[in-house]
Description:
Helices cover 19% and strands 37% of the residues. By secondary structure, it is α+β, with helices and mostly antiparallel strands. Strands 1, 2, 3, 4, 5 and 6 form a six-stranded antiparallel β-sheet that branches.
Amino acid sequence: MLATLAVLATPTHAQKQPDPKAIQKIFECLAVGLPQGWTRAWVVVTEIADAGKERRFESQSFYADSPAAVAGKPLATCGAEVVARGVIALSADLPAEQRRWKQARLTYFSEGKFDLAYDYGK
């Protein structure tokens, strides 16, 4: 699923660990489309435009059903925009100089772990 949305850049507070409830809420939205036997699910939120205070993003969700799988299969969620907004909201806890990321990737593993990574490249 692909979603495009615009978000206003807003200054917030100092860095802290991601809110476990927010991480769980995003996973619940991804989980609606996960088949039995999944090993990894992830969402990639990419900035597609930056016009000062307004930034535009698109979101894609995937899953893998094998630990060795490199490429993912498209994942139907409760709503791509819901997932994207959840991931974008997580960056509010980053220091101000780290909030202007170009891509965020939130990965969940079937063992119950997750990984959140930001790319600041072009």
